[in-house]
Amino acid sequence: MAYKLTLIEYDEDIFVGEDMNPDISHRDYIPGVIGSPVITEEEQADVDFTEIATRIEDMRVYAKVISSSSSSSSSSSLSSSSSSSSSSAAGGYKFKDLGVTTRANGLYISPDGQHLLTIDRAWEYNWEWGILSYYLSVPWDIRTASFVAGVKFNSIPNGPSCQYYHGIYAHPDGYHIYILGSDSGYSTWVFDIEINTAWDITDNPTRAADGNYSVYPLNHRSLKFSSDGTKMYIAETFYDYVLQYNLSTAWDVTSGGPAANQYTNISSYDNELTGVCFKGDGTKMMVIGDQYDTVLYWTLSTAWTLYGETKDANEEDISDIVTDPNDIFCNSAGDHIFVVESNGYLYDFDFS
After folding, report:
1. CB neighbourhood size of 102 (10 A)
2. Is 29 helix (H, G, I), strand (E, B) or coil?
């Protein structure tokens, strides 16, 4: 006897609720998914077919085993947007494949939750570095994100000219986009790209300013600012520090550095730090690394201020879902954590 799998949910609504033909592989339904949807009688020992849910790897699609190939499908309590996701997040998680992205190295979402930006080497742009923008028709619901536009850095007059780009942030008014770039020689810059229309990255983007933050031989990976723009934070994966730079003029990247004013060392928790973000009031810092794929967070005794080595971290293990985190972002309340992988997979973990 063979058992069929029933697709319960998929982000693009492909084959939702339809039985999978046991004679056709997953690849024939969804490209890139490997494996057979058939569970044979020999494989069903010690398995409760009324409860088990099977995750089809790589596409974050969930399926449930039904009692026999002729039975009607049954619903599953496990899905990528369900409150009972396999992640430790209390409220589960949501998933979105950003599609055009091929190397998502940074993540930013506007204060109203409707504009999403990434740094990328997109295949549609000849593998060249640039900014990709998306619009969320439902604020903060990443499943509603649709691609808007892309701008290559080499198309911007006097634009950024680094070898790598690893972080992105924006002024709350949407007229300035900040880019973290570096070269193989560890020179690091933060660029201020000004645009004429808020959140429209195609409207005359211009390199307005740049700041040099090259004092340390570090591998910088993530860029964030305090809510008032007077502090800037860079995560680096050489020593696994979060570096804090105090800007003498708010949002002016030329008014800080190159040496960090304060720092936090998280190497005792993860040796491949890839992202940092802060709760809207600056009282909570969250990081993620590629060694353990775990969200770490701390309460800061003074808002927006880092002090030396951090201990006693709280942890949320998401390694069963995320395997290649490249940056992290959170909403103002700090209870929704957004993680982007290098392949463009985007997650919203509900930690409320």
Report:
1. 16
2. helix
Q: Give the global pTM.
A: 0.76
Distance CA 347, CA 94 (A): 6
Rounded Cα distance between 162 and 184, Å, is 9
What b/e readout covers 289-321, taking b as 16+ CB neighbours within 10 angstroms? Answer: bbbbbbbbbbebeeebbbeeebeebeebebeeb
Contact assessment for residue 287 and residue 242, using Cβ atoms and an 8 Å cutoff:
yes
CB burial of residue 207 (10 Å; 0-12, 13-18, 19+): middle
- 157-207: pLDDT as tens digits: 888 888 889 899 999 999 999 999 988 767 889 999 999 999 999 999 999
332-344 in b/e burial notation, b at 16+ Cβ within 10 A?
A: eebbbbbbbbbeb
Cis peptide before 258 (omega within 30 of 0): yes
User: How many C-beta atoms lie closer than 10 Å to residue 351's C-beta?
Assistant: 20
Q: In what order do the strands lie in the sheet with 115-121?
A: 106-109, 115-121, 129-136, 145-152
| Residue 234 Rama label (left phi>0; alpha psi -120 to 50; beta) | beta
CA quadruple 127, 133, 138, 142: dihedral sign = positive
